[in-house]
Design brief:
It contains 24 helices and no strands. The protein is mostly helical. The longest helix is centred in the N-terminal third of the chain and has 36 residues.
């Protein structure tokens, strides 16, 4: 699927609108303004009903017929008035006199003359759009330089040829601009004409929900109208690109710029190894599963937890890459990373870190004010890790502590209280992360010694480091097993623990003191499976316990 500038723009704009909507809902804390996740859920449920689509179809019919009718009348009239000076002098005063008159005041008269059905609504909408399109086309044609007409007349062209070859093509872009503007106007007028004396349409849905104090359903109608307006706007934009192709001859360069931005985004994601988020994210979702019977879990909570996780990890990894750029440049294994290789500049990396930190802080604020205030010291701990290997071999433990806070943070975000039981899951994650970070550090033991860097492999040797890693993973397994009794989970949890124990054994069988060639397999693949198994264990254990 081709991603265009408009697509990415719509996505970013939607995210911004949802964020502002969420902030407003939190600030007002009123049923009149439900949070976006509730409105979205109600909208998706309505989409499964025939009533919504019937009302949507009726509104779409009224708008589309009105737009087509108004364009068919206004475009030729606007072209003739703009091209013919005599017609312009005769008709322009009438147009400019009637254009400012608010057509809405004619609604009672139109209803009396044409009844309460679709015809009266189509006539009113068409009447309003007619003048918008007419004035835009007329002014566009009048703006054509006379030299084009003179040159064609000198070659024997008739007025008909001039109209078809010059005027019509020149007027089309102005008519499409008017159509895009008219789409918004049409939706606004549609709501007005459907708000009374009717029993169908999206406007009727909104007003009927208002009368019944069904505030979430009001937003179902609003989203439906927004969707209809967006469809019309995009339809006219795409039609213009086809009909007026000459206007977009130079747009390929813009598309190339968008492609470059997307490629740059991929570079950022590779810089922070975004795919490795899977190591800690399943532990966050495991905490969600364990909190299921202790609090109400919402889509909003899961969404903001995910965003906070992504933001925190991206900021931490970006900061780590920035702090270690000089070290990475010397290390043959890391010299090709994006910052040492110059694919990403220091300024770009700093901007990325700031943006990721803001995502984490904002997401934390969306969860609760307590999470918001805790987000700052959490960032401080995450950033501290990047310096620890310069003065202590406990850097692996610091990394474990930084990531091991995830389950506790998720629990507090969902329940609002501290629990020693969930701390056990955090300790399991601490030992798990520290253990495989020691395995990973074994690759650089010689380089780290030469550079005066600290790590457990440097301090105790590779063989002892592998033994320490094994001890940490055994501790992690026993801590995970204790979750079974602490939360009274279903015995299926123990089945998953057996799989995890087997995976730990495989991981340590792959890495030998005299053969570190399989470190990446153990680090990336086996650990990814272990993390996912922890989530499945917690979710299935809690789900089956609740059901059975």
């Amino acid at each position: 699927m081709k991603v265009t500038h408009n697509t990415s723009g719509y996505i970013l704009s939607t995210i911004l609108c949802v964020l502002l909507w969420k902030l407003a809902a939190m600030a007002f804390s009123s049923p009149v303004l439900p949070p976006p996740e509730q409105a979205l859920q109600a909208f998706l449920q309505s989409c499964l009903t025939g009533t919504f689509w019937q009302n949507f179809g009726i509104s779409a019919y009224r708008v589309i017929v009105s737009i087509v009718l108004s364009w068919c009348l206004a475009f030729p009239v606007g072209v003739l008035i703009g091209y013919n000076r005599h017609m312009d002098k005769a008709l322009s005063p009438l147009i400019f006199m009637t254009y400012p008159v608010p057509k809405m005041v004619l609604l009672p008269l139109i209803l009396l003359l044409f009844g309460l059905g679709d015809l009266s609504k189509i006539i009113l909408i068409s009447l309003i759009l007619f003048f918008q399109i007419l004035v835009a086309v007329r002014d566009g044609v009048k703006g054509i330089d006379e030299k084009y007409f003179d040159s064609m007349r000198s070659m024997g062209a008739t007025d008909r040829s001039i109209l078809t070859e010059v005027v019509f093509p020149a007027a089309l872009p102005y008519s499409f601009t008017a159509l895009r503007i008219s789409a918004g106007t049409a939706i606004s007028v549609l709501f007005f004409v459907e708000s009374f004396a009717t029993t169908s349409g999206l406007g009727y849905m909104i007003m009927n929900s208002w009368a019944k104090a069904q505030y979430t359903q009001i937003f179902v109608g609003i989203i439906g109208m927004s969707m209809l307006g967006l469809i019309l706007f995009e339809t006219f934009r795409r039609m213009e690109r086809k009909v007026c192709a000459w206007k977009y001859a130079g747009e390929r360069e813009e598309e190339q710029q968008v492609t470059q931005l997307l490629l740059k985004a991929r570079v950022y994601l590779r810089m922070i190894k975004f795919s490795h988020t899977i190591f800690a994210l399943p532990f966050a979702f495991a905490s969600v599963a364990l909190a299921w019977n202790h609090t109400r879990i919402t889509f909003s909570g899961i969404f903001w937890i995910t965003m906070a996780m992504i933001g925190a990890r991206s900021a931490a990894m970006g900061f780590n890459r920035l702090v270690d750029v000089a070290i990475d440049r010397k290390n043959p294994r890391t010299a090709e990373r994006h910052l040492p290789a110059g694919t990403i500049t220091r300024g770009e990396a700093k901007s990325f870190i700031v943006a990721s930190s803001l995502v984490f802080i904002i997401s934390s604020a969306m969860l609760s004010w307590l999470c918001f205030w805790f987000s700052f010291p959490v960032l401080g701990i995450l950033f501290l890790y990047s310096y620890t290997k310069r003065f202590t071999f406990f850097s692996h433990i610091v990394l474990g502590i930084a990531i091991g806070m995830v389950p506790l943070g998720v629990w507090i975000a969902l329940t609002g209280v501290f629990s020693l039981k969930i701390v056990v899951l955090g300790l399991a994650l601490l030992c798990y992360i520290a253990g495989f970070d020691i395995l990973y550090a074994c690759q650089d033991v010689n380089f780290d010694r030469e550079e005066g860097l600290y790590s457990i492999p440097v301090a105790f040797g590779v063989r002892n480091a592998l033994w320490i890693s094994s001890v940490l993973h055994v501790a992690s397994l026993f801590l995970l097993l204790s979750i079974y009794w602490l939360f009274h989970l279903h015995p299926v949890y123990l089945f998953f623990m057996g799989i995890i124990a087997l995976l730990f054994i495989i991981e340590h069988k792959l890495v030998k003191p005299d053969n570190l060639s399989h470190v990446n397999v153990a680090f990336y693949h086996v650990n990814s499976i272990i993390s996912v198994m922890v989530f499945f264990a917690a979710s299935m254990g809690e789900l089956l316990r609740s059901i059975l």
